């Protein structure tokens, strides 16, 4: 990254994490600044990769995706080829909303969001188990969610 974050940068990032739809004018007013420097700072944070993208966070239950499943995956092999093939395949599955390479008992941890248990079973049978380099699969069905955020507390890194 090109520069280290100062207090205004971290305040900007915190504000944008809470509501990236806010106007530059409202952010500038909150920070006691004018719009031009705020706009320039935001563009710089985007250019330097501190801000990856802007998204709308959906209420998955409201749109009919009521089941969250976490799947621990162990691959048969750990060569670069196995890992790359697995990630390529997983990235093509729209049910998978997160894929993390992890340490411990699994190689990968997936997060799926699907309509119901039948949709999950269909995913397992018609997609996941067809991967030839798959080893062990362990699923955990989400019963409820007590915290669901993408917001990073920046006070921990300053």
Write a compact overview of the structure shown.
Helix content is 35%, strand content 19%. With 158 residues, the chain is of the alpha+beta class.
Predict the CATH topology of the largest domain: Alpha-Beta Plaits
Q: What characteristic shape results from the CA principal axes?
A: elongated
Structural class of the helices, strands and pairings? alpha+beta
SSE topology string: HHHEHEEHE
What is the residue-mean pLDDT, rounded to a whole number? 93
- In the CATH classification, which architecture of the largest domain applies? 2-Layer Sandwich
Number of strands: 4
Q: In whole angstroms, how far apart are the ends?
A: 15 Å
In what range is the share of β-strand residues? 15-25%
Number of domains: 2
State the major sheet: 4 strands, antiparallel
Show unreliable segments. none
The level 1 CATH classification of the largest domain is Alpha Beta
